[in-house]
Fold this sequence. Notes:
The chain is an alpha+beta fold and about 70 residues long. It has 1 helix and 3 strands, in the order βαββ. The protein has one helix spanning about 20-30, and strands spanning about 5-15, 35-50, 50-65. A 3-stranded antiparallel beta sheet has the order 1-3-2. β2 and β3 form a beta hairpin. The radius of gyration is 14 Å and the shape is elongated. The mean pLDDT is about 95.
Amino acid sequence: MPGTYKKIEIVGTSPVSFAEAVKTAVADASKTVRRMDWFEVVEERGRIADGKVAEFQVTVRIGFKLER
């Protein structure tokens, strides 16, 4: 399908898992970004509190088609 796409980069977080952090990021982006088509995870990291994993964080690039 011909067209022009734009990429944005956002960070999603979750206390449960990396997968949940991605789902959170995409769900939140969908509230304001239209025509999203794909995502790519570019970085995974987390936060440690009291010697335990407290939060999963993912940097996600989301691609969406520009409207004409």
